[in-house]
Amino acid sequence: MRIYDMHPGKMSAIKDRFRDHVIQLFIKHEMKITDFWEDLDEANNRLYYLVEHADLETRNLNYEQFRGDPEWIELKRMTEQDGPLVKKQESIFMKQAAFFNHNNLTNGAN
User: Fold this and answer.
1) DSSP label at residue 24
2) Could you give the CA distance from residue 107 to residue 99 in angstroms, rounded to a whole number?
3) Do the beta carbons of residue 34 and residue 50 sit within 8 Å?
4) pLDDT less than 70: residues of the chain
5) Global pTM exceeds 0.70
């Protein structure tokens, strides 16, 4: 999970950057995005998203290739001409809990 604490007034710009460019770059670098969320309390000014990788080694390789991609380097430069969008970024590494299986969920009432 990635958590971005945004600089004031930059949330719209980061959402545009993801929508218009970064999601496709992630796909290019075999980075599977599961979902995005915005903090319900807008005062927190946070964006959250999940990216799935087969393992930590693959994750590190994917991000290394993404960060070195000339298209990303230019996009970041262009979208941050007025200053950085992200004030603080946090990465949380998680693994699937063995006891939970989505296929066993039912929507029926008991």
Assistant:
1) H
2) 19
3) yes
4) 106-110
5) yes
